[in-house]
């Protein structure tokens, strides 16, 4: 599952979830409890489909290069995440 991969949403929430909750404090009283973590993880997995974190990162990087007019290719973007 993408959420279990290095760089996945599950790893992010496990590592930085408490800090994320602090950033949300200006919104009132949000709680990053197990239910919300599960909802976020499931939502990311639905959006990602069968793509790995590396594939999604390479696609994002490739789009960034394309929009900036850079001559970098998707292969270079993929190499950054290998």
Verbal overview:
The chain is mostly helical. The protein has helices at residues 9-24, 34-48, 53-68, 74-79.
Topology:
Blueprint (H helix, E strand, L loop, with lengths): L8 H16 L9 H15 L4 H16 L5 H6 L3
Low-confidence stretches: none
- What can be said about the biggest beta sheet? none
- The beta-strand count equals 0
Helix percentage = 55-70%
From the N-terminal CA to the C-terminal CA, the straight-line distance is 18 Å
Shape, principal axes of CA atoms: globular
Helices and strands: which structural class? mainly alpha
| Beta-strand fraction estimate | under 5%
**Chain oligomer state:** single chain
> How are helices and strands ordered from N to C?
HHHH
Radius of gyration based on Cα positions: 16 Å
Q: State mean pLDDT (0 to 100 scale).
A: 77
Structure keywords:
single chain, 82 residues, mainly alpha, 4 helices, 0% strand
What's the short story on this structure?
With 82 residues, this protein is mostly helical. It contains 4 helices and no strands.
